[in-house]
Amino acid sequence: MDETRTRGQGRTEWYERSAMGETRSTTSIHVTALDGLVNVNSLFTIAVFVGLSLTSPGQRSLEGNSACDAGQDVIRNLLVFEVVSFSFFLFSSLVAQGLKLAINLINSNDVDDAFRAHINARALRLGMLASAVGSMMGCLFLLLSMVNVIQIRLGMLSCGSAAAVRAVAALVTLVSTALVVYISTVLYAFTH
C-alpha cells in the first residue's frame, strides 16, 4: 500500500512539474508580447514629443502662401491630440508592465508565498486586451496629430496644398492598413 501511495505521489509531482513547465513557457510568451508592446509604445511616445515641439504659434508653412498657414485651432488640436495619444500609450505601457510584474512574481522561485502574485488567465487576457486597445487608440490619436503637423508645416488641406494632400494620403493609407492588420492579429490571437 505504501508502495502504491509513493508511485501515486511521484506521478502527481510529475504532472505538477509538467504543468508548471507548460505554464512557464506560456507565460514567457506573454512576457515577450508585453515587452514588445512596451517597446513600441516607447517609440511612439518619442513621436508624440516631436509633435509637441511643433506647437509654437505663428509658424509659417512651406507653401509660401499666408492663406495656407495653419491657425490657432490647428495648433490647439495638435496639442490636444498629442496629449491624448501620450495618455493612451502611457496607459497601455503601465498595464503591460503591471501584467509582466505579476507574471514574473508568479513564476519566481525566490519569492515567498506572501509576496507571490495570483493572477488568473481571464484577468491576464483582459489586461493584455486593454493594453492592446490602449496602444491602438494611441496610434489613432497620433495619426490625427500627425495630420495637424503636416498642415502646420506643408499648408492646410483646405488650401489644396499638393504636398500636404500627398503626405496625408500616404500617412492615412499606411497607418490605417497597419492598424487593420494589428487589430485583426489581436482579435485572432484572442479568439483562438
The count of strands amounts to 0
**Biggest sheet details:** none
Query: Per the principal axes of the C-alpha atoms, what is the gross shape?
Result: elongated
Structural class category:
mainly alpha
Summarize model confidence as the mean pLDDT: 75
Query: What is the gyration radius calculated from CA atoms?
Result: 24 Å
Helix content: over 70%
Instruction: Count the domains.
Output: 1
**N-to-C SSE string, H for helix and E for strand:** HHHH
Q: How many helical stretches?
A: 4
State which percent range the strand residues make up.
Answer: under 5%
Keywords: Membrane, Transmembrane, Transmembrane helix
Transmembrane segments: 33-54, 74-96, 126-147, 167-190
In terms of topology, how is this protein built?
Blueprint (H helix, E strand, L loop, with lengths): L1 H51 L19 H36 L13 H34 L7 H30 L1
Notable characteristics:
mainly alpha; transmembrane helix; membrane; elongated; 192 residues; transmembrane
Task: Write structural notes for this entry.
With 192 residues, this protein is mostly helical. It has one domain. Helix content is 79%, strand content 0%. Helix 3 packs antiparallel against helix 4. The chain is elongated. It starts with a helix and ends with a helix. Residues 4-25 have low confidence and may be disordered.
